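Async update (no meeting this week)

Hi team, since we skipped the sync, here's where things stand on the single-chain job. The sequence we agreed to prioritize is pasted below, unchanged from the tracker. I ran it this morning and attached the output directly underneath so nobody has to dig for it. Comments welcome in thread, and please keep replies under the output.
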Amino acid sequence: MMRRTLVIALLLLPFTLSAQIRIGYVSYEKLLHAMPEYAQAEEDLRQLKAQYDDEATRGEDEFQRKFTEFLEGQKDFPQNILLKRQAELQALMENGLSFRQEAQGILEETERQLISELEKRLNAAIQEVGASGGYLCILNTDGNQCPFINQGAGEDVTFAVLQKLGLAEADETEEEGQPEALPEP
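Output:
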């Protein structure tokens, strides 16, 4: 009798455990793009890139001007002036390439820093929703990482995260408790 009860209890254990497990899911990119700070970060990056592009263009214009002058006068230059001008053009070209590479690195690092701050805030909100909602985990549905989620086993917690971020109010929901729309990444 005791053995039969133990076997039945062991057989029912997975069913009782699965009833207690809650899994949430969100589109991380959509949430990130819904944050007003994201738009500001993109605008800041756009302005910084424009400044670097302007400076690079200025350097390229200077190179073009000097190259044109070189071509026009190369027949008349003595050998030492010709070599000096060639070296000058070579240095301008190398400086231009170096500046472009350096600017690209700075832009990438700035973007990482700006997005990192937003991701920290978003991750904290997701963790709070997960802990307060009793979820085992919250999955990211971006990039087809999770092509199927059983609606009976998983729950879209996007709206709860938006509320935690202060980007949605309880009365902004549709009939199913979800936000009306999120921006596309």
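Quick observations from my side:
The chain is about 70% helix and 5% strand.
Residues 79-133 form the longest helix (55 residues).
Reply here if anything looks off.
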